[in-house]
Amino acid sequence: RERTFIMIKPDGVHRALVGKIIKRFENKGLKLVALKFIWGKEDMFKKHYADLSNRKFFPHLVKYMCRGPVVPMVWEGLHAVEISRVLLGQTCSEECEPGTIRGDFSIQGNRNHPMGRNVIHGSDSVESAKREIDLWFTKDEVV
Ligand code: ATP
Ligand code: MG
Predict the structure, then answer these.
(1) Which residues form the Nucleoside diphosphate kinase-like domain (predicted)?
(2) Which residue, judged by its Cα, is nearest atom 25 of ligand 1?
């Protein structure tokens, strides 16, 4: 069965959305197989978002992710990666539709945070899911 890596970002935790977000994944029928609550360190987010390291917004992204605790999770189920991306909604505020997590809970887009604060992260492919799960969890932390 497929697994995906999901992380509630600091703004999601700060705004007390943890329960609501978990409920959406449970309602969908995905199975929770790992979860923790941690204050991530800078080097972890640099690794996590390594693909974006040459982008102009990268330092801002890393700083944003370090601002407070996050909730990394692993969810399992048929097409878990793609289904989770649908639950999340688009990256960008104008594009994420009502009914999605980002569409319902986030409105970004000001000069300081063009599209930064979007509540939640989800792996964009099965390969990145594997990489991200290994980065954030040890083998025995995933059931
Ligand atoms: P995530 O990987 O966090 O699930 P995503 O896959 O939808 O988001 P990515 O392109 O991987 O989008 O970007 C990762 C994160 O970097 C975005 O969620 C957002 O917080 C931030 N980001 C992306 N593009 C920009 C941008 N142009 N300006 C500012 N921040 C951005
Ligand atoms: Mg991404």
Answers:
(1) 1-143
(2) 115
